Each structure stands twice: as C-alpha cells, then as structure tokens.
## 1
Amino acid sequence: MSLNEPMRAVALKYDGENAPVVTATGEGKIAEEIVRIAREHGIPLREDAMLAELLSELELGEEIPQILYRVIAEVIAFAYLVSGKAPVIKDKNS
C-alpha cells in the first residue's frame, strides 16, 4: 500500500468451528469506522495491508479461502494472545 492509497479494513468473525467469514470491509472513511467500532468493543486489531487487500476481494458473509487458513490462524492466535484469552478446544467425541 502506498502513502496515497486510502486506509483499508476488513473484519472477520470466527465461531471456533467453521472457517472465519468476512463481516465488514471498506476503504477510507468506512475503514476508519470499522477500526473505531473494533476499538470501542475491545476487538484486537492487526495491521497487514496485503492481507486486508486480499480479504477485501471477498463478499460479505463469505468464508475465507483455504489458501488463507494458515495466515488467518496466525491472526486469530495473535488476537487471543493480546486479549489474554485461550482458545476453547472442543472434544470431537462429544
């Protein structure tokens, strides 16, 4: 992203069972509002212009593609770490 490009933000929702889905995406003022709302609700933020560009090509409600699973897993792990939380591991036998 160059200095002349507008800010871009993408919000994801992860329920712990299914692939994360895109819940919001925008540039400029909309991106600023996405970030403001995330901060207001204590949602961890991670700056990654290249990832935001890739995710912004997805439709709202669309699951992330498998090719991005590893990088998104790292983002989710980062979010847990900065939030002081641990993921819930579900027993597949229950």
Note: The longest helix spans residues 69-83.
## 2
Amino acid sequence: MKKSTLLVVCVFLAVLSVGSVYGQGFTGPGAGTANGLVQTVTVSQARGLPDRTLVILTGTIVQSIGREKYTFRDSTGDITVDIDRELWTLLGISVSATDRVEIGGKIDVEKRLVEIDVKYIKKL
C-alpha cells in the first residue's frame, strides 16, 4: 500500500477523533463540526458544499458503478462516492447494500458534478 494513502487515512481519522472530543453535548452554531474542519451532513447538504470540504455521512452503499465508484444513499438522496481498493483492504471490511455505514471524506466537485472522495468508512 502507498504510504501517502495510509498517511491521509491516519490524518483524517485524527481529525475525526478531535471532532468526537470537541463536539459532544453541543447543539449551537457550529455543532457537527470538528473545529470547523469536518461537517456531518446529508447527501442533499453535501451537494451544496464547496470543493474539498471534509464531511461525514451516514447511509448505505447501494451499488457499485465501476472503477472504485459507488452509489451512496441516505434519506435525502444519492451521491457517487469514490472508495479506493486500498482503503477496503486497509480497513479490512466489506459491506452489502443493506449495511448501514458512516463514511468520511472530502467533497470533489468537477464540472458541477459532486462526489465524495472517501478516506474513511465504518460499518455501523
């Protein structure tokens, strides 16, 4: 596995852990973010965020659409997610279309098409 992929995953997990420490019990402005860095959002909200925004989503991966691309779904809609093969191997998990998952990654906007470049996935 590439060292850069492992480093990105480690940094993202560190940012997520900061969010769990700072975000507990607070529901005012900025709730759902880790020092303003990571936002917990829905698919609908993710579509309106700027490129490279770090996000966490909860839902299901309903379909493989080829070349490390998948359709992710929550109650607000569907979005394409890009999950590298190395990430599946690194985390040692597999999911089915009925498994609820939490994904973390960054918004990737190209020519008005929005997808999530996944750096973290956890089966719930």
Note: The chain has three helices and six strands.
## 3
Amino acid sequence: MSRIVLDASAVLAVIHQEPGYDKLTAPLLAQAVASTVNLAEVQSKLVSRGWSPHEAWEDATSPVREAVPFDAEQARIAGDLIADTRPLGLSLGDRACLALAIALEAPVYTCQSAWKKLRWKIPIHVMR
C-alpha cells in the first residue's frame, strides 16, 4: 500500500478542521503516516492549549494510520537538508517530516506555504 506523509501543520489542520483540511480525503488519510517527531510537536501544541496529555496524544495520532519512529537514516537526511531549508525558515520538525517522505519516497502534505519553494523528487502538496 502506498503512503503519504503528513507534517504537524497538516495533522493540526485535520484536528481543528482548518482551511485546507478537506484536501485530505478519507482515502488519503487511510494512507497517512507521520514522524514521531511531528506527532510530538502536535501533542505539545494541544497540551499547551489545554488538552490532557492522553487526549492530546489520541487526537494527534487519530488522523494517521501509522506513527513512524524517527531513525538514524531520517536523522542523517534531516541533517543533510539544513542548507536547502534554512533560507525558508524550516524547523527540525519540518526537516524530520521531509526526511521521512524522502526515505519512503512518498508525497508529503503541509499547510506551510514556504514549502512551495522546495524542489525535490518527492511531491509536496501545500494544502492552503
């Protein structure tokens, strides 16, 4: 089965039904994975907004089929991406997401418009 990768902004858009969330249809979400780095980011944002830690984790992981552990290969790829992504202001979490997509050779979904400027072999879908 093919996979798509969601970054933290895409997961949050689904949870809060923010603009662009509807681009992630049920068939796409059935293929969705996210890096554990990005899910920690989502959980942190939800807890800071008043969710209990348990509820935040449940909500953070609900839009994805699989939470993919951040491994050594992804860490190396994320580190390699710094030169290309620093000018765009991308964070370590953003690079972790991109590293997963590159490792899986899967399209990635985000709500961050700066990602439109990235040109790689993986498709990048900016949802708004």
Note: The first helix runs from residue 8 to 16.
